[in-house]
Amino acid sequence: MNTAIKYGLVAGIAYILWELMEYLLGFHGPKISIGFYLAPLVVIIPVGVMILAIKARRRELKGWLPLRAGIQTAFVVSLVAALLATTFMTAYTTLINPDYLNVKVEFQRKAYFDKRKRQDPTVSDNTARREAITQFPVHGIPRIMASYGIVRLCPGLLIGLIITMWFRREPPLPGPTPAENGKPNGE
């Protein structure tokens, strides 16, 4: 199996397990406030998997990692992971936890409302609520899942590019050796 596809599947499964763990711990329901603040920790998945994938690709290339090979690996890993995770989240939000998106939007609206009232106590409750609804509208599942896929794909690509630059090692250019040039020691 292709290294990038293998690690893309690993990342996708890790995203799925992360979402299921959040669900089982109640972070997609009654404890959503905790889950909302722990969500940035999911970055551990693409960083860890991308390091493993790029190192494996470098091993395949006998210690060399041209920029193009690293970027291709990062793209395939990110794409496969995003497709798998997005497919799962579509099933999750329609079959397993259909209330999740509404709970999440309501939490974000309430947080916005509270923040707005703290910033300007003279704002009426109705105005703050209207602003919150405008800031966090409820979209259909296809649009939300497209956003979810992009949120999984783009950071993976950026992380992959950074890790590729870290592990990058170009093979030497073909050309005459110093001895073939007729000059000793490359002079």
Description:
The chain has one domain. With 187 residues, the protein is an all-alpha fold. Helices cover 74% and strands 0% of the residues. The mean pLDDT is 84. It has helices spanning 3-24, 32-38, 44-60, 67-96, 100-119, 125-135, 141-167, 178-181.
Instruction: Give the end-to-end Cα distance, rounded to a whole number of Å.
Output: 46 Å
Question: Radius of gyration from the CA trace?
Answer: 23 Å
Q: Judging from the principal axes of the Cα atoms, what is the shape?
A: elongated
Question: What's the number of helices?
Answer: 8
Strand content is under 5%
The assembly state of the depicted protein chains is single chain
Question: Which spans of ≥5 residues are poorly predicted at pLDDT below 50?
Answer: none
Element pattern in H and E: HHHHHHHH
Can you count the beta strands? Answer: 0
Overall structural domain count: 1
- What is the mean pLDDT? 84
- Most strands sheet: none
Task: Give the fraction of residues assigned to helices.
Answer: over 70%
Topology of this protein?
Layout: H1 3-24, H2 32-38, H3 44-60, H4 67-96, H5 100-119, H6 125-135, H7 141-167, H8 178-181
Helix pairs in contact: 1-3, 1-4, 3-4, 3-7, 4-7, 5-6
Could you list some keywords that capture this structure?
single chain, 187 residues, mainly alpha, 74% helix, elongated
